[in-house]
Amino acid sequence: MAKVELTINGKNHCFEVEDRTLLVNLIRDHAQLTGTHVGCDTSQCGACTVHMNGEAIKSCTVFALQANGAQITTIEGLAKNGKLHPVQQAFTQCHALQCGFCTPGMIMSVAGLLKNNPKPTDEQIYHGLEGNLCRCTGYVNIVKAVKKSAELLATQKQSR
Amino acid sequence: MDQHHHSPLFTVDGAKLSRLEDLRLITGKGRYASDWNDPQQLHACFLRADRAHANIVSINTDKALQHPGVKAIYTGADALAAGYLRSANFLTFAGKDGMKALVPDRPCLAIGKVRFVGDQVAMVVAQSHLAAQDACDLIEVVYEDLPAVIDPVAALQPGSVLIHDDIPGNSPFEAEAGNEAEVTQAIAKAAHVTKLSVDCTRVTASPMEPRAALIAYDKTTEQYTVHTPSQGVNMTRRQFAAYANNMSEDKIRVEVEDVGGGFGQRSSVYPEYVAMMIAAKALGHSIKWVSTRTESFLTDTHGRGNLITATLAMDENAQFTALRIDWITDMGAFLSPTGPVSHIRNPSTCLNGVYKIPALYGHFKVALTNTALVAAYRGAGRPDIAYAIERVVDTAALELNMNPADLRRRNYIPANEFPYKTATGSVYECADLPTLSAKALQLSDWSGFEARRLSSLAKGKLRGIGMSTVIEGTGAGMYPKDEIELSANAAGELTAHTVAHSQGQGHQTSFAMLISDAMQIPVEKIKIKQGDPARSPHIVGNHSGGSRSMVGAGTVCHLAALKLIEAAKSLAAEDLGVEPSQVSYSKGVFQAAGSRKKITLGELASKKTVSVKAEGAFSKQTFPNGSHITEVEVDPETGVSEIVSYLTVDDCGHVVSHTIVEGQVHGAVVQGLGQVFGEHIVYDKQTGQMITASFSDYVMPKAGDLKSIQVEECPTMSKLGPLGIKGVGEAGCTASLGALVNAVVNALHPYGIKHIDMPLTPAKVWATIEQAKSQR
């Protein structure tokens, strides 16, 4: 068993977990934040994407123990003071989700992508979404939502 | 041109939304099957067959039982003791010469034999998921291997190894549609006959949410409560009860909220769930199980898997005179609840596609193989028949040296012949195919293709154009009617209960829009509830599948709103002291004629129960139809195909939400694209091991595969219901297979290539080009 201390969405936690526990299982089963999803066992689908110390990562590729001391943001922590994050706004406004299962991972992934590249080209968007699978939308509206997110983020920056 | 039909946004808690369900889904508050927990729950894990066909000689669970945390282990003996041996099957019609299907038993845990890789052999229940998983590895199974048969044609050969002793020839069912003698005669007299065999490949739906269940047993009520992905809780409850030795349906409570995609794959009740019922009852704890993705590939029902030969006869004017379809449907090791119906009835209904063909004959033979089960997958036989027809028509055009658009135009069922009775006996309700097709040809600039082909050629790319015009039946379901329960509360808000479960289709928005329209109340004040175990057993209605929910439950939302207004008028009349005929209704307010006396819906609901149940019967079918045109560029050096344009013109009748309809079309077209260019469930032909059992081996479509799409509408209104709705969920899949393959084959015509079976991977396209070159 291992002791893991970490911060999730601004809240400090301390859990005793089996050594082989993955970060995604700590988030879902121990912290009981079920917005982060598991869609595969080979790290291909991206439904488990969260931010660890500000970077988008697949939480199924990290042992809980490796996140000791880390700052984690999950989909539940993305909206601030009851206001949706621009990527969340863009996803609904572009109808970039249907069943919603891949959506938390998509949104966390896109937020990470745009943090590192605020004005991606189409090719950069396709590349950036390569690690996230969606079965419902056909991706056309997701790509649109990435562009809309970039616009909203740029506007937000200007108005600061 | 993308998404110019966007419906207005809704405002909820200050957020602007496309759909009412979106707010919880974008903030992580959705509740899917694996999100349900019970503090006292135990965890199940399944030991699965690692071989395709073998007798089970012995199972030793001693070591596994001693593993820390393990509570119990169940095997086929427990399935036998419980009598959980037969899943439901919805095959109701008779086969050839009146034959009845031979439905093999499928115990919830294998008894005596395993029949495909992934077949469930034992279930370990433990205090943690990890303990259950570890203990599975400690179970010792001795097998006696048997030869496996993977290929459906081989399975049907005399002398093939038998998968079930009681199913001769591995063929549990054979069926016919139309008139064989008429077709044989017409083919003999034809001026030209085109014959083409296509493999509508085996694929898997792969909703992003893996299968999962939490199942509890209540000793006092003797009821099981089930949380699992479902396309409609009535259908789920019925299948649970049937599988659990025909127990009474009221012993099963199904509670479901969000479902992470379905596509037909979530319409079946699977054996793992009923095995969990045994443990829940015996151990007195809730049992939880969450499938891995590999288990999904191995054991979730697959889709398509049909070998189809189309023989098309035509006269000297290229008018179609007869079509013969010979169809082998691979159902895997057992019959799934929906598979045989999907792959026989649905294609029989649309055996002539969009064409006027006086003589039709279809012959359907079901094959069993040592592979996972096959069932409904988005379209459920409709894409398969449409694909075969649209490919044989394009092949005929090539052989006759005709423009494929002209050949189609010559043979479309004329608009004035609807309702059109087909030679297999179905009645196409309404469509205007010539107008719809003309719109698609014009918008795609079909006639200007040659210039675009030459400009691609100048870049070293082979450009191809493909069209596909299709029609499909929808509306009818298993239940005789669809009901909606609609109630108002003191705040003037409305709640509708439905059993048509959304798996992403957005019913909470589109159903609310219909009620909002009828009642002139903002959409935001209307809640659509699905999968509520307190309400759903009292509501008759179909699951969401077969593109039917807007036709059925959606239309009934409208009827329920009208009924609620009338019922509330009577209640308002009592309150206002006037006759009901004196009460008028507008925007949530009831007003007495000629006076200032009025009462709001909310005030009325605070005093009296304002609630109705409305119903609609949709036993006949309506027929969405559409024409898709796409252009591709193939790089002959690499075999890579790129889609350069994709246009859809669909007639799905009256559209409630253009945003949602467009989303459905996008998703379905890309699922078709997936099958055309990469997706394929592949088993090793000798061992029966699946070699595509993960997302690293099974080629899912990704962002950028379809860069843009133009979605257009060309409606004719259905008269099946008062709103003219036809349904749209499957249309994109039905048309896209044919359109995309036609386009790629068209690009390869210069090499004399007439057909390539899916998937059109770069390697296969390149090899086909190289082979064609070497033969010239």
Topology:
The complex is a heterodimer of chains A (160) and B (776).
Chain A: E1 2-8, E2 11-17, H1 23-30, E3 49-52, E4 55-58, E5 71-73, H2 86-93, H3 103-116, H4 122-128, H5 140-158
Parallel strand pairs in A: 1-5
Antiparallel strand pairs in A: 1-2, 3-4, 3-5
Helix pairs in contact in A: 2-5
Chain B: E1 10-12, E2 15-17, H1 22-26, E3 42-48, E4 54-60, H2 62-66, E5 70-75, H3 76-82, E6 113-114, E7 120-126, H4 129-136, E8 140-145, H5 152-156, E9 174-178, H6 180-189, E10 192-204, E11 212-218, E12 223-227, H7 233-243, E13 252-254, H8 271-283, E14 287-290, H9 293-299, E15 302-314, E16 320-330, H10 339-349, E17 359-367, H11 382-400, H12 404-411, E18 420-421, E19 427-428, H13 433-443, H14 449-458, E20 462-471, E21 482-488, E22 494-498, H15 507-519, E23 526-530, H16 550-576, E24 583-586, E25 589-592, E26 598-600, H17 601-607, E27 611-616, E28 625-634, E29 641-651, H18 658-677, E30 710-713, H19 731-747, H20 762-774
How would you describe this protein?
The complex is a heterodimer of chains A (160) and B (776). In chain A, 35% of the residues lie in helices and 16% in strands. Chain A is of the alpha+beta class and 160 residues long. In chain A, strands 2-1-5-3-4 form a five-stranded mixed beta sheet, sandwiched between helices. By secondary structure, chain B is of the alpha+beta class. Chain B has three domains: 34-149 and 206-299, Alpha-Beta Complex (Aldehyde Oxidoreductase, domain 3), CATH 3.90.1170.50; 429-474 and 621-774, 2-Layer Sandwich (Aldehyde Oxidoreductase, domain 4); 482-616, Aldehyde oxidase/xanthine dehydrogenase, molybdopterin binding domain (Aldehyde Oxidoreductase, domain 4). The longest helix of chain B has 27 residues, at 550-576. Chain B is globular, with a radius of gyration of 27 Å. The model of chain B has no long low-confidence stretch (mean pLDDT 97). At the A-B interface, helix 2, helix 3, helix 4 and helix 5 of A face strand 2, helix 1 and helix 18 of B.
